[in-house]
Amino acid sequence: MPRHKQSAQEAASCHHCPPPAAETKKVEQPNKKALINRIRRIEGQVGGVLNMVEEDRYCVDILTQISAVKSALDGVAVQILSTHATGCVRRAIMEDGGSAEITELLGIIRKMMR
Question: Where is this region: Disordered (predicted)?
Fold first, then answer.
């Protein structure tokens, strides 16, 4: 098959991101199955914390598990943030400068840092 150079618009298009004129924003996450598995493990950790509270476990042990859950959620958030930045935001920058998407990205980073 002959290889041809991609136009900037073709290179910028990402099958994970909605088209620019999309009415609803939907994004198919790459590595979706692994991401779902990670979230299900976190769900199990939260259930473990609930059991620890119900069983009157030692406060420090419960807090340690809560810290582990928060770290795991942060890891998932960073993975999704990375996908968004390298997919959706990158595409928007290449198409029209991405001013709105950069503002949106900075806003969500601010929320994550609180």
Answer: 1-29
